[in-house]
Structure prediction request, 703 residues.
Amino acid sequence: MYNPGVHVFQVAIYGKGGIGKSTVTANVSYILASRGNRVIQLGCDPKHDSTRLLIGGRSQVTVLDYLRSTPRSERSVDDVVAVGSGGVRCIEAGGPEPGVGCAGRGILTTFDFLESDASPAGDADYKLYDVLGDVVCGGFAVPLRKGYADAVYIVTSGEFMSLYAANNILKGLLNYDDGRPRVGGIIMNRRGITCEVEYVRNFADGVGLPIVTVIERDPLFAEAESSGRTVSEAFPGTAPAESVARIADDIEARASGASALSFPRPLSDEAMDLVAKGIALEGGRHLLYSRIRNPVDDCLSLKSCSGIGAVLNAATVAGLHTVVHGPSSCAYMFCHYEDRNTLCHDVLGTGRSVWENVSCTGLDDSSSVFGGLEVLREHVRRRASMGDGCIAVISMCVPGIIGDDIVTACRELSDDLGVEVIPIPVDGIASGGGSEGSEAVTMAMVGLSEPYAEKDPGLINIMGEYRVRSAHMSHLDRSVEDLIRAAGFGINTVYPGRCTIGDIRRMGRAAFAVSSMDTVTNRPVYRRACEAMGVTLMRNPLPRGIDAIGSWLAEVSELTGRDLSGVLESAEAEYRAAIGPARRALEGKRAILVTRPAVDYGWLDRTLEDLGVDIVGRMESSRNRWAMGCDADGSEPYTTDMLERRVDSLAPDLVISDGFADIHVGAGLYQLKVPRPGVAGIADFADGLSRATRAPAVEGWRA
Prediction:
């Protein structure tokens, strides 16, 4: 008998669903217990039938059902333990209702609960986990993790899908490699297919594992199960009982150290294809699965969450209440996002914070197991009772993982409550990054726009916010609005930005639209939105720089037939007058530019030329390398040391950088931001640049 002292030898038995794991595990538990060992069996399959043969064919209360119905203060692990044949202590994790919640998360919850009270495991010699192995997700992979299974056995037949699942289990074990061998071997449960032993032997040789036992098909298994017992209890000494006993022998040998465990060596897809075809595997590294990742894949990973993009878009719409369907931590993070100060501290001058338009369903661990739709329904009903007539529901990662169907739920709530409940199922990062979340909300809002057969050529929509949030900078807004009016337009709707649901419904009335800023991410979104409404989107965004003003006015003339030559002359005169004072301070100055290729700085060269600034060097900001992924051309990454060396060699008066205001370069440092549209935006940039040259370039100074 294994004498572990204080250590419980833990065994995980994995395999494809329906392959016979539960039958094998229950028989092994009974045999180990009949030899005088203290045994615990934990069923980790949502079917919760792992321990049935140990407790007379009955079902027992599952951990998840117990947690759902028992207050936290009254819970005890002993309540979920049933003592079965041979004294085996039986526990079933259970699972959520079919199609609701996450069974894998339920396994995690079960383990957390069992660890909170050591009473059932504290005096055990062996603990056996019976685990579903079709998909080794984070929850079902818990027994593979360090601190749980000392040995892993895999039940398989000669059927390819069973062998495929076995290989996936080995991949999962490889991902949780802790530097020690943990694989016991293959348990072959025959199904009676042609050449079955040869198929399994070929696979076992390829992965370098022994076949611990071969369990033949035998009617004694069914006869024993019909009486609610294991074959080892009902028919001891028979061939079926002896074949299972060899597994118990192997486990005891591994536990005592008499036999060594193996490292996982899963096969590659190429090798598994050979297994499926019955072709013998020959040696070669190409036959083994490799978990080495391409570093480019890491560089191209998501840098933001689509949920946050969706919430930041929806939150500024007055009359639209935004529900974050997810944990409270998601909503908390969004409200403390780095750009929160740009969101305006009031909505349309009401004095209300935009975050008063946002609430959260606050999903907890129970919701992640059993589903969160009822929590969502109750939350939306409460918001409707508070007077919210239009509600957007934005789903985070947890609802996406557990399968909450918010589209159907929102439709039913709309019908039931008589309010507009708009589903936006971005599911956190599942839809991509922040730009994808913003796009999802934009298209949902466009769907609210009323159809207008006749478009008004005197109205224009502005796609994207252009206004500042500070009263003392209101001249920047007026500059844009004066230019738009001079071009013959009235502003219809500004979206995304400070607008109302009514403004959104009127978006289709305007004949034209212009984006406030043209970027790689927003250009296709605004194009799709305008096409959906039948509105013409201008090629040029709101203009920054005098050259852009000329191009924009030329396009307006092309679209409308208006003669705007006088408007351009007036803008040019205003521009010259606005930058005059700054030119007197900047003329002859030398500058190094540190910019991002992803941002259009076409306005910058012309403006610096008109200010008399000489550009003596250019560098690419490393911010771009983070935001865009790996460097495609393989050039040397930007570093602060490189900039300092460039400053030493070129001796500029200014470093104009797109975001590195914390570097010490011994020159005036100006943090570059894309200016507001119109003449006033360029004038504001020029004034800030001239003030940077007048400030002392000493350690600690920042523009």
